[in-house]
Design goal:
By secondary structure, the chain is α/β, with parallel strands linked by helices. It contains eight helices and twelve strands. The strands form three sheets. It has a six-stranded mixed beta sheet. A four-stranded mixed beta sheet has the order 4-3-6-5, with helices on one face. A two-stranded antiparallel ribbon has the order 1-2. The protein is flat and about 70 Å long.
């Protein structure tokens, strides 16, 4: 029987319990385990067109439940559908099902071509690199300030350990990507986790957007995996000047970062890292 206090406890949908068969030497035994939850989320926008309110599904993404409102807000910004937080009037999660609705202000200008799911940011989408970079060039709302900010090498080297300590769900499941915002002194300002590295970035950016914070231009973002073209693109859309990754960058990610004067760092460890472009921001 569920007690009254249990009924009022929030359900943690970020993890899912399973039973696994544990093999250790010649010993076999069943054990309880936890997996990172992966469920679909449909993002819909409600906007005004010729004086009438329209509703449009714009994306279905596989994500870890939690921070769904931030994920939706971040997605709209990093995909160029909105440019500012004040273009969002309200965000509502549907009571039944994995659907979230974002209601835009009546005066928000929407590029209808971006509502056809013609997103070019996937590293496997088959669009040539030059076309992808040219497309990003036309929509970036926050050009970066050259040689600003400056971060000490020690801050970069210490960031993975500080991120690891903050990864609560990863600690329980081992199955999530993370994205974290650090200031130039190395303080962790915000962190998000998700089964999708792109969703983790959108959650981080959307959380800052909804909080009305403007800390990206003075900070560094660290991702727990590799630095893909899409992550660089999303970071540029938010005005992030320094993107560091524990893993490797792709060739197209480096090209995009270099073209927009972003500092891109890879293979960050406690004793070393590689700077692929923008080394003037690291001292």
């Amino acid at each position: 029987m569920i007690s009254h206090s249990d009924e009022n406890m929030p359900i943690d949908r970020s993890v899912s319990p399973v039973t696994v068969t544990r093999i250790c030497g010649v010993t076999t035994q069943p054990e309880a385990d936890l997996l990172a939850t992966e469920e679909p989320l449909e993002i819909r926008i409600i906007y005004h067109l010729e004086g009438r309110r329209k509703q449009q599904p714009i994306s279905v993404t596989m994500r870890t439940p939690g921070e769904d409102e931030s994920l939706a807000a971040g997605f709209l910004l990093t995909e160029g559908i909105i440019q500012r937080a004040d273009q969002i009037e309200a965000i509502h999660a549907c009571r039944h099902g994995n659907v979230i609705r974002v209601r835009l202000q009546a005066d928000a200008t929407i590029d209808l071509s971006k509502l056809q799911r013609h997103f070019y940011t996937s590293s496997s989408c088959g669009v040539c690199g030059k076309s992808s970079i040219d497309a990003v060039q036309t929509i970036i709302p926050y050009p970066l300030i050259s040689q600003y900010p400056v971060v000490e090498s020690e801050v970069v080297r210490q960031a993975p350990q500080r991120l690891r300590i903050a990864q609560a769900v990863f600690e329980r499941t081992g199955g999530l990507h993370a994205c974290a915002l650090f200031n130039t002194s190395g303080q962790l300002l915000r962190m998000s986790e998700d089964v999708g590295r792109h969703n983790a970035m959108d959650k981080l950016i959307g959380g800052e957007l909804r909080a009305g914070a403007e800390r990206f231009r003075d900070s560094m973002v660290l991702v727990s995996g590799r630095a893909s073209f899409e992550l660089v693109q999303k970071a540029l859309m938010a005005g992030i000047p320094i993107l560091a990754a524990i893993g490797a960058p792709s060739s197209l990610a480096v090209q995009l970062a270099a073209q927009h004067d972003m500092t891109l760092i890879g293979f960050v460890r406690a004793d070393r890292f590689n700077i692929y472009c923008g080394d003037e921001r690291i001292c």
